[in-house]
Amino acid sequence: MTWMIYGANGYTGRLVADLAVQRGEQPVLAGRGAESVARLATARGLEHRIFDLADPAAVDTGLDGIDLVVHCAGPFSATSRPMVDGCLRNGAHYLDITGEVDVFESIFARDEQARGAGVVLLPGVGFDVVPTDCLAAAVAAELPTATRLDLAFQAGGGISGGTLKSALEGAALGGRVRVDGQLRDVPMAWRRREVPFPSGPRKVASLPWGDVATAYRSTGIGTITTFARLPGVDLGGPAARLGRLALRAPGAQALGKAAIGRFVRGPGEGKRSASWVEVYAEATDPDGTTVSAALIGPDTYDFTADSVLRSVAAVRAERPEPGAHTPSTAFGADFVRRMHGVRVIEPARVSG
Q1: Statement: the pTM of the whole predicted model exceeds 0.85
Q2: How far apart are CA 141 and CA 93, in angstroms?
């Protein structure tokens, strides 16, 4: 299988490329930055291609002979559709590392088209959303009567420019939850609760996370809220609300993204190696019975590079049915257990 990393010159794309080489893979590196992509590929002895997603003919040329694309060039709200279009036209499987709710929804809406093309569409094969999706599927399987699902995470470490650009877009929109099967716009930090993470209980606040799209598809549970612990950040406070209003002003997004592109480089290897992530999932049924599970894993970027490579290998070896998938619908709830450095705390039941 010939596969490609598009956006290989970005922070996460570079991590994926380096890990691929370490594991004996030879992906084609691609992007629109001719000089940076060529330099990256030459140093690693890999083929490279240059094309802009805004040009469908160039996309078709760039995808010639490619069986699978790992799309790492965000923000995915702008880049996912042209790449998905190209993959469907050219019969290439599509994987990405998005965490954006609307991107997931738009890709899931193309399930029938993907089936007809014989293509797997698998967004979210990084930290967004492999661990949360797999834990959601695990607790749902233990409690088939569940009608509510809470998912939460806390993480150490820094953040890359691409992640910040996506977060900038999301911050202007406010919160998103799923209620009785429907996506709903809500204020940021609409709900707050305490979560028993493996390291101890922590207070968390709701924020928009891709699982309000993916976990619904994976589990069928109709009411889903996603939470995070962000030390020192009050997502629902006056300063945060004013910031979101400012981000809606004309030109604010463009200015913010330009500043991020210039000044943000992402965490180095030392900082990543000292970082970690914890994820918690809790399903509840109408009688008040709950099933919860948790996991501890490495830094989110190192997790992402590992899970991307394992997703590529799984598509190659396990050949999931064509169509639009989440990680757990493609490979099962235990897929997260394959990741390096991940420890899963088994599901626990508390009767209502």
Answers
A1: yes
A2: 28
Domains of the chain: 3-126+303-332 (3.40.50.720), 130-300+335-350 (3.30.360)
Q: Are 277 and 153 in contact (CB under 8 A)?
A: yes
The token duo for 66 is 């490619």
Cα 34 from Cα 262, distance rounded (Å): 18
pLDDT tens digits, 56-95:
999 999 999 999 999 999 999 999 999 999 999 999 999 9
Closest CA to 283 of 140, 181, 134, 131: 140
Residues 6+ apart with CB under 8 A from 160: 10, 11, 12, 264, 265, 266, 267, 301
Quote the mean pLDDT of the chain: 87
Residue 80 makes CB contacts below 8 A (sequence gap 6+) with 71, 96, 98, 103, 106, 107, 123
Element housing 177 (H / E) = strand 175-179
Give the tokens for residue 101.
Answer: 């709710």
Token duo for residue 132: 């949360």
Read off the pLDDT of residues 89-104 as tens digits, 9 standing for 90 and up: 999 999 999 999 999 9
